[in-house]
Amino acid sequence: MYNRRVIPVLLLSDYGFYKTKKFKTKKYLGDPINIVKIFNEKEVDELIILDIDNNKIDFDYLKDIASESFAPMTYGGGIKTVEDARRILELGFEKISVQKSAFENIQFLNELSSNFGSSSVVFSIDFYTNIWGKLKVRNNKSNLSLIELIESGIKNGAGEILLNDISRDGMKIGLNQDIANEISKKIEVPLTLVGGANSFEDIINGFKNGLSGIGVGKMFSFHGELDGVLISYLNEMQLNKIKYEEI
Amino acid sequence: MIGIISYGCGNILSIKNMLDYLRIKSFIIDSPDQIIDATKLILPGVGSFDNGIQKLVDGLWIEELEKHVLVNKKPVLGICLGMQLMCKSSDEGSLKGLGWIDAKVLKFESKNIKVPHMGWNEISVQKDTLFKNNLRYRFYFVHSYFVMCLSSQIISSKCEYENNFTSSFEKENIFGVQFHPEKSHKFGMEVLKNFNNV
Fold first, then answer.
1. Which of A93, A226, B6, B113 has the CB geometry, 3.0–4.6 Å to B162, for a possible disulfide?
2. Contact at 8 Å (CB) between B192 and B177?
3. How far is CA A164 from the centre of its chain?
4. Domains along chain B with CATH numbers
């Protein structure tokens, strides 16, 4: 069996789930508890929930969401202290994802992994391709390049890298397969890429290029030309191919 | 009524959630004197081996647990670290395990695999007490150490990660699973349901 994961990524804002486009415009998806419940019934490999408001964490609310999932879950957004992380894990999340706090102080990853083990610590990075085709990291406070930043996160205890491709966010134009290939060759820890996934074939190519996880937003939440909300996931044949077949 | 032992190691909410969903009655056991109220026990756990054993010692759990498990033969299910604590010893620590099961806990050591072993993996069923209905069972695992049973008689399933390891054991009323049934959808539900029917 292959350890390949296809992961719905859900963006939390003011007690609702939203789908963004290039991280700017956002469209309402539905009630989080209800949506987690639906994905759970579809037996997803894993779920990633990211709070995009950066407000104070509402732990009681996260507890309600977590109680709907019988699959492993990652939470990111507003985690500033080890205590925040501990509380999230106690609610039933398996992993915590940090970005801003790690950008401000990369040692924070170290503190988290020495407390909870590196397998619970995800380092998340948003990147985009600028108009000259150069890769840029959003909110980068250092002068490190994308790969240097990733390597420094791993050195400091991150057990998984979550790369969010803003240029492709909500665009359904396919994953950036070049990045998938380039980065996964260079690092030892699991790499999850999210942004642009648009077909089963695209997902298969992502795994061929060495990704461990593929985050999916729009492909599993909107349907048809009018972009009506419809929660879906891989069918059994597709799941079996990903899990059990050489690709 | 299943009692989930809360001794300060790991997340018990997810286990309670799945049992509630399955409409299996359960409660959380906060102190050893409540063990008597349970007909079956779950010993959960995440974290390191020595920390787990130390918490059992400090909370005065061991004597009471052994009375109910070894003498009264109440069915007990160890999950993840809970399974490992039932063994004799672990490479991860220097404290002695509970020793209910003739097994050691070893570290994954190979350059070819990533440690911890994390994610979904399939098992090959050897005994179907917990794994009925002939499903193609897969479970969610997170662990850096694995159980090696000294007697193959008690292995109820095996899993492959570079080499074979014991993904679950059963010896009379004592059950242990390395994976997380509470995070493994219908496969995990099957395990908890079957344990409830033991």
1. B113
2. no
3. 7
4. 2-196 (3.40.50.880)
Domain range list for chain A:
5-244
A93-to-A1, A87, A121, B13 alpha-carbon distances in Å: 24, 9, 11, 10
Nearest to A218 by CA among A4, A33, A66, A23: A23
At the second CATH level, the architecture of A5-244 is: Alpha-Beta Barrel (3.20)
| Cis? peptide before A32, omega within 30° of 0 | no
Which residue out of B9, B87, B92, B182 is catalytically annotated? B182
- Nearest-angstrom CA–CA distance, A212 and A163: 12
Residue A9 and residue A47: Cα distance in Å, rounded? 6
Q: Is B120–A243 a contact, with Cβ atoms under 8 angstroms apart?
A: yes
The ipTM, to two decimals, is 0.85
A94 and B CB contact within 8 Å: yes
Point out the residues of A that are catalytic. 126
Neighboring chain A residues of B182 at a CB cutoff of 8 Å? 70
> A170: phi > 0 → left, psi -120 to 50 → alpha, else beta; which?
left
CB-based contact B59:B92 (threshold 8 Å)? no
The pLDDT tens digits of the residues spanning A151-203 come to 999 999 999 999 999 999 888 899 999 999 999 999 988 999 999 999 999 99
List beta partners, residue B177: B79, B168
